[in-house]
Amino acid sequence: MREYNVAVVGATGVVGTEMISTLERRNFPVKELILLASERSLGRELTFRGKDYPVRVLSEDSFKDVEIGLFSAGGNISRRFAPVAAKDGCVVIDNTSAFRMEPDIPLVVPEVNPEDIGAYGTRRIIANPNCSTIQMVVALKPIHDAVGIKRIVVSTYQAVSGTGKDAIEELTGQTRALLSLKELEIKVYPHRIAFNCLPHIDVFLDNGYTKEEMKMVDETRKILKTPSMAVTATTVRVPVFYGHSESVNIETERKITPDEVREILSSAPGVTVIDNPDLSEYPLASDAAGKDDTFVGRIREDESIPNGINMWIVADNIRKGAALNAVQIAEILIDKHLD
Ligand code: NAP
Ligand code: 3JN
What we know:
- The longest helix is centred in the C-terminal third of the chain and has 19 residues, at 319-337.
- The protein is globular and about 60 Å long.
- Helices cover 30% and strands 24% of the residues.
- By secondary structure, the protein is of the alpha/beta class.
- The strands form two sheets. It has a seven-stranded mixed beta sheet with strand order 3-4-2-1-5-6-7, with helices on both faces. The protein has a six-stranded mixed beta sheet with strand order 9-8-10-13-12-11.
- Residues 10-16, 37-38, 40-41, 58, 72-75, 77, 95-96, 128, 130-131, 162, 164-165, 321-322 line the site of NADP nicotinamide-adenine-dinucleotide phosphate.
């Protein structure tokens, strides 16, 4: 089997380390693994398949023999280095928002629009959507195919791991400080995150929404190819380490019952239905963490309108929301599109 030289940009981060373990877990055909991060990580080593690999400092020369680049070191790094890598012949799978909305860059969730990967050739960059978008479209695409979705109203409950390693430390430190009646430090978020909920993810925009909220709106429309679908989002950071949860309300073109939704989703790729309220069984972030699937439950009729459904969607934001989705894209790329 052909093997590929793979670079992980942002290898020491929360997403980058999960990229490395996902490549290993899924037995991706890696020939050479190139780990790239900032000067801060010089001297560090990370383990892949039982072998230690040095972390190298990212530079314009990093991509000479690299065939696939998995980028997660922030938008500015991607804007600067993804075109350099592409010029050197690498196909970049970019986890940042830098290129997601560019018309000639595919924005892909493999369970939803794998066919769009074929258009990677123009720029040699494929964008991975935002984590909150990914889990929502995985669950909604089969319903959209069945009865058409007219409108989506979503509120998210997002784990701190979505902000990176500093935020995981901040929640840990603040929780310890509060429980031991010590002074707490607030560095990453504008307010205390421990024992709190912050309706503020990414920056505020002129329309009063946050950038995270508008990412959900714009990316959902692009992935589902429904440019005028009504979508509105409220994104909230909660004191959870791993796993994003979402309360999702949809209005459909044609009527669908909760039983029909459960049946459709029970055979949908990448979805597990957990929906036994009588037994207190529904998706939980604590159960979804460390798993690949998107979990859906609390499926019920929205009795306030003729064609409405409410549901609760949970996934591991670092796996399906980031690293796993990127590696799944790479798998389709090598299977169907690269020599
Ligand atoms: P993180 O834990 O803070 O890690 C950041 C990574 O980027 C580290 O490896 C860091 O290296 C590297 N980095 C930072 N500045 C760099 C520079 N100047 N040159 C080279 N490497 C640099 O953050 P994370 O949670 O892994 O997220 C990283 C990025 O992934 C985010 O900014 C975001 O764009 C994207 N992301 C996407 C999703 C999604 O929804 N799909 C979810 C989470 C994150 P050092 O350790 O050397 O500093
Ligand atoms: O906050 C989360 O739960 C997900 C965060 C994603 C993120 C964090 C920093 C920068 C992104 C993203 O993927 O949209 C970005 C970015 O690249 O804009």
